[in-house]
Amino acid sequence: MRRTRVQRVVVDPVTDFLRDEAAGGIALAVATVAALLWANAAGDEYAAAWAHVLRVGTGDLALDLDLRHWVNDGLMAIFFFVVGLEIKRELVCGELRDRRAATLPVLAALGGVVVPALIFLAITAGTPQAQGWAIPAATDIAFAVGVLALLGDRVSAGVKLFVLTIAIVDDILAILIIAIFYAGDLSLPWLAAGVTGLAAVVAIRRLGVTQIAPYLLLGIAVWIAIHESGVHATIAGVALGLLTPTGIVGGRNVLEFLEHRLHAISAFAIVPLFALSNAGVSFGADILTETAHSRVAWAIAAGLVLGKLLGIAGATFLGLRLGVGTLPADVSRGQVWGLAAVCGIGFTVSLFIAQLAYDDPATIDLAKVAIFAGSILSGLIGALILIALARRTRSREAPG
């Protein structure tokens, strides 16, 4: 039987996305363990390896960045480009296209950003660490989807899609937060150059240019301009992703083509490399003791575990009560608590924001430990809730 257009345009990309994210979560976990083993076996060597400076370019156009910054500012721009593609797809032909269907996950995502941030600020009020308020506001799609994949048929397709939509809206909010609150000193000429480059991308697209080389060159130019402007360079990736056309251009679906080609690279290479370069922290007695007495660590852990749980579930139930949205048919109110807890896995983007929020390596290490602890605890709580609900449902359906 021939597949319908909806199956090809909507179902297939989402299925591929979920499959890649689940497998990518395993790659991310392996890279994280490798980083921790490396940092604990040879902490100085780990730090020195990523502090090695690499010069790219010549003269005034040369960039001198250490390897960690090349990963965080350069390769992660590709990760955020893929995020931009995912957002564009959702806005055009996904859950975010239908205003009523999108309202509830949008409200849930807002609650999942605001409540963790408020909890963080309440704990760190009056301290310099308060600038890291956005760290517990993030959701890691790969790990969250990975946990749901491990639960198999205990979790319905509706739960996975609801979590995916929340996580994508969460990504939109995280991008806005990074652009607005974690920008450096702005250079208006460089920012103008970046905007001009984006306008050039739109112009050549309207002129019917289909060769990839001009877009690639303009993309690199935009990345350099945004990097030099003081706005974080990864925003260039998001902007270029959002400008990618939908539909058939030059005989192929450009957005679907790019997402299919780049998503695997992002999930299996870039994000694990990011974890390898950023997740390493030495778990000595001192760091564990300091974490236990650190306000910023408790703020991050509480934000991820309690903030995400209460924020997402609370906003979802408020939306249902106000009648502004509906849950998918195969998602129960009890499962909302489980999926809300799973969304407390804030690994990749949380680590990313921690690097932007703090300059002190000791504070960053405390943040990393708290992110690990909060994410693991959130995943366990969410999985246990969803497993318990699945068992209860099966026992009720079992014959007499």
Describe this structure in words.
α1 crosses α5 (141-150) and α8 (212-229) packs across α9. The two termini are 39 Å apart. Strands 1-2 form a two-stranded antiparallel sheet. Strands 3-4 form a two-stranded antiparallel sheet. The protein is globular. The protein has 400 residues and is mostly helical. Mean pLDDT is 86; it is low at 1-11. The longest helix is centred in the first third of the chain and has 37 residues, at 5-41. It is built from 15 helices and four strands. The protein has one domain (5-182, 232-393): Up-down Bundle (Na+/H+ antiporter like fold), CATH 1.20.1530. β1 and β2 (63-66) form a beta hairpin.
Uncertain residue ranges: 1-11
Sum up the overall morphology in one term.
globular
User: Between the first and last Cα atoms, what is the distance in angstroms?
Assistant: 39 Å
- CATH-scheme architecture: Up-down Bundle
CATH class: Mainly Alpha
Name the helicity range: over 70%
Q: CATH topology, what is it called?
A: Na+/H+ antiporter like fold
What is the residue-mean pLDDT, rounded to a whole number? 86
Tally of extended strands?
A: 4
For the largest beta-sheet, the strand count, sense and barrel status come to: 2 strands, antiparallel
C-alpha-based Rg, rounded: 21 Å
- What's the tally of helices? 15
Estimate nothing, just give the exact number of structural domains. 1
Percent range for β-strand residues: under 5%
**Strand order in space, largest sheet:** 1-2
The arrangement of helices and strands along the chain is: HHEEHHHHHHHEEHHHHHH
In CATH terms, the superfamily is: Na+/H+ antiporter like domain
| Class from secondary-structure proportions | mainly alpha
